[in-house]
Structure formats: structure tokens, C-alpha cells
Amino acid sequence: MKLKIGMASNPRTQPIFQGLVERQGLELECEDIHGSELFYRQLKSAEFDVAEMSMSSFMIITSQGDTRFVGLPIFTMRKFFHTGILVRIDSGIELPEDLKGKRVGVPEYQQTAMLWIRGILQHEFGVAPPDMTFWMERTPDLSHGGLTGFAPPPGVTINQIPAESSLGEMVASGELDSALLYLSDRNLVDRSRVDLNNHPEVKPLFSDPRAEGIRYHEKTGILPINHCMVIRRELAGKNPGLAEHVYRLFVRANELCEAQRMEHMAYHVDTGLVAEDVLRTQIVKYGMVANRRVLETAANYSHEQGLTPRLIGVEELFAPELMNV
User: Fold this and answer.
1) How confident is the model at residue 266 (pLDDT cuts 50, 70, 90)?
2) CATH of residue 263
3) Which of 251, 237, 288, 316 lies closest to 49 in space, CA to CA?
4) In 50, 62, 73, 283, which residue has its Cα 20 to 30 A from 230's Cα atom?
């Protein structure tokens, strides 16, 4: 069977791109695409048989009755997104709490990274979405929200960044106080190109982002999930066992990635950079058993923030045969 797969290349998907995983009868046509563009294309036309998908958009369309896709508990992108918040030096923002009353820029309000950032700001630092004024870069015709009928949740003010400008330009000029999330990679839907990370008037909100990530993880046990893989429901329905087959391919790719990481462990331990027990801990795991709590937290944030009109259960999202893996 031939499968067209869309996903971004990273260490955990590279073994599949490179053909290092036994495909067991599957012919894979893999396309490397930036996530921002991929989700737009998949939401618009279900272009790929199997594709990386925004967890936030997946929950939103599921709540709307759009059942074109079945989720696979493969989580290819995870990150402590709130540790990357950027602020202007002259904004008076020194602590997360100082974001109250500020003008903040985002690529797109509904995207998963922003779901986590808003949830963490609210639950860790007491800054709720209505406390800030949002400016969004992506336009309705080139955004995930444009395909899902997104409208600002009650109490939240969202302005559109003018088409002739960009999020990066507005932060650099002082029109915005902060970029809660900043994307400058070239793709179909994001247009910012200013290098804010090295701009003299901009600094990270957290002076030690790594320490904040460690603090949050030690407190909550959560490593936020950004993307999962989905398969077209019609295809999975016609081919029993296909969803699990694809899942096992990605699990094997993840195992190869972990094996490569462990090969370098001795060097890092010998240099004293990190303790051996830390390196031996596998943080990125696939499957529902290891990730149910993180997924349920994301679903709670989505409902709490008004993106989904009801609380989505993980059973609605993922293939039934993979619920216990």
C-alpha cells in the first residue's frame, strides 16, 4: 500500500525519511513541510493520507463534528513554549505577571503553542487571556482559524496585524510590547522575518529559559504536546490494522532516535555536563498511557479558553485500537 505522508523533518522523524525503519509492505511518499503550512493544507483539503497535525486545530474540528481524521498517539513536537516569550526592554515587563494590560503579538491565536502559553500564564502566573490585548499576524485567508471558523472568545480582544506589516516589525518598532510566540521560518502562512532574538530592544521574558522549563516540568510533570499524527478516517476504516501499523513505524523511529542519543551519553557524562541518570531518562514517549494526562490538560485548556464549546475526550480523537498502548 502506498501512503502519502506530510510531516516536518526532525530527529524523531528522520529515520522514516531516510528509510531506516522496516516498512513492512508500505510504500511511503514522505514530504518535508513546515508545520504551519502543513496544517493549513491538511485542514483545507486532507491532502495527505497521514500527516502531522496541530493538536489544538484537531480538537477544534472534532468539536465541530469534522471527523475526517483519526489521531495516532505519535507526538512529533513537544516544547516548553512559554519559555520563549520575548518582550521589549522598554515595556516594563520583568515578570510574567507584568504582561497584564500589555499589547502582545501572536502568529495565530488558536495554534497549540499559544494554547499552552495562555494556559501556563493563567495557571502558573495568574495572567488570563482577557488581561492582555492580542495582535494576530496570520490573515483569515491564510490561517488555520480561517478554515475552522475561528472567532475571538468572549472577553478576549484580538486585533489583526496589518497585511503591510508583521508581528516582528511591530515588536521591533515598539507598537507591541511582547511576542508571546515568534515564528520567522519561511512558509506559506507566516510572514515575519525580523531577527527578534538578536534585536537590541528585545529580550527573553525568562532570563534563564532552561531553568524555567525545568521548574515547570518538575512541578507539573508535563512536557507540552504540540503536534500529533493523524490518518484519514476513510483510509483507516477500509484497511483494518493500518493505524496500528503506522503507529509502530513511528515508535520504531523514536527508538532509533533514542538509541542514537544514548550513544553520545558517555561523552556528556564524562565531561561532567549532565548526570547519567538524567540522560538515561526517556522524556519523549509515544502512546496514550504515557501521554493521557498531557492530552487531557490540553483539552481542558481548549475548553477553558473558549476554543472548543465542550470538553473533548481523548477517546474522540484517537484510534480505538491504540487507546491502551
Assistant:
1) low
2) 3.40.190.10
3) 237
4) 283
